[in-house]
Amino acid sequence: MRVLFVPHANKAHLHLMAPLAWALRTAGHDVSVACQPGIADNVMAVGFTPVVVGEATHTFPALPAALVPDGPSAPRRLGPAQRQDMPWQHDYALADPLGELARAAWGFTLFSPDSLIADLLGFARRWSPDLVVWDSMVYAGAVVATACGAAHARMLMGPDAITHLRRSAGAAGDPLRDWLQPVLARYGCEIGEEIAVGQWTIDPMPPWQWRPSGVHYVPVRQIPLNPPALVPDWLNEDQDRDRVCLTLGMSHREGRGTEASTADLLEAVSELDVEVVATFDSAQLGSIRSIPDNVRVVDFVPMSALLPTCSAVVHHGGAGTFATALECGVPQLIVPGTHWSFQWWGPIAHANGLQEQGAGRFVADSDHLTAEALAEDLRRVLKDPSFRANAERLRAEVVGMPAPNDIVPALEKLTWEHRDQRNKYTK
């Protein structure tokens, strides 16, 4: 069969999809990856020839002032004895689900502009895919699959926040449907619920993470993917003390003031008897006058090579670092940024699950982070062997999940079943 992948214009999302795309390709299926210009090079780097559609999109644009939540901004500093309470993913929709959806609606059109939909549909009509696998933030994939009669599956990057918010908003409104209905009508199609959630949803999140009920989830193990890089020689040298990785990932280097303070992170580890590997670039180090003696700064090192040598990892909660740490059995300390709302992208869901499972800690978001809080949590994680034991337990559970190759037969079966209903939403 022919399978069309439609990733978000962010390489981290592409890296999440790539192992499944290769599983289908090595099973003998034709696979195409249609992307916006900004990640065409990344598509080539993971081994596919990109089909470039639409125009370039900024992956971390500033939220318009009119959509910024009301109320005073969070305090930048807390006292040494004060700690931020961990927010919970399942509470995300309690306060203002419709307001959160209204903010998301701005992203719907940003990540699925008319030019992308038109170009993508033109290619799909020429190529005739049997299945479209679309990133959960890029509804252009669902629109195009419906218009050209293909089966389609949504692929999550993190928690299923949109389903959660839409259900919580209920009769109060549905900005997603309001936007999609006229878009589909332009192509002679009617809207159905599967346009919003996929005919099924491929879910790479661990089974112990919270998710809304009533959605057809197909679980798959997330296979961490690192961009091409050489492993530095020092990683093969003997260690004489615990090593801690300190990273804010790669994607958020493109962000706008959303990261935790580099100064706070470095101050937190400066007095600890550990070797710290900090993956910071020159912009992140711009205001730092001196690097602590126990810190080695590198612009980039493959997490798959670094984390097996570490006793803990401090990171922003991104999907790639989270999955690599799980696979390596390393305790995790989560310090999310505040890009719009971190419940969208996974850090809070990751932190909730890790802390409940005893394999990590939520430290604080970037507005509430203090060096004292991070140092306290790091000492606790490094001193208490239960964190490593629980991380190893989670590693065994994750390794036992269906790998991308394992779910290919299920995807084949679902595709043929839904192709039989391909004209359901076409007028």
Distance between the termini: 25 Å
Under CATH at level 1, the class of the largest domain stands as Alpha Beta
Regions with little confidence, pLDDT below 50 for 5+ residues? 71-75
> How many runs of DSSP E, i.e. beta strands?
13
Structural class: alpha/beta
Estimate nothing, just give the exact number of structural domains: 2
CATH architecture of the largest domain: 3-Layer(aba) Sandwich
Largest sheet: 7 strands, parallel
Helix and strand sequence? EHEHEHHEHEHHHEEEHEEHEHEHEHHH
Q: What does the average pLDDT come to?
A: 89
Strand content: 5-15%
Helix content: 25-40%
Order of the strands making up the biggest sheet:
3-2-1-4-5-6-7
| Rg computed from alpha carbons, rounded to a whole number of angstroms | 22 Å
Number of helices: 15
The CATH superfamily title of the largest domain: Glycogen Phosphorylase B
CATH topology of the largest domain, by name, is Rossmann fold
Shape, please? globular
Give a nutshell description of this structure.
The protein has 15 helices and 13 strands.
Please characterize this protein's 3D structure.
This protein has 427 residues and is an alpha/beta fold. The protein folds into 2 domains: 2-221 and 402-419, Glycogen Phosphorylase B (Rossmann fold, 3-Layer(aba) Sandwich); 233-399, Glycogen Phosphorylase B (Rossmann fold, 3-Layer(aba) Sandwich). It has helices at 11-26, 40-45, 97-111, 114-127, 140-148, 161-169, 175-186, 193-197, 262-269, 303-306, 319-328, 347-356, 371-383, 385-399, 404-419, and strands at 2-6, 30-35, 50-52, 131-135, 151-155, 200-203, 217-219, 243-247, 275-279, 295-298, 312-315, 332-334, 360-362. It has a 7-stranded parallel beta sheet with strand order 3-2-1-4-5-6-7, with helices on both faces. The protein has a 6-stranded parallel beta sheet with strand order 10-9-8-11-12-13, sandwiched between helices. Helix 4 (114-127) packs parallel to helix 5 and helix 9 (262-269) packs across helix 13.
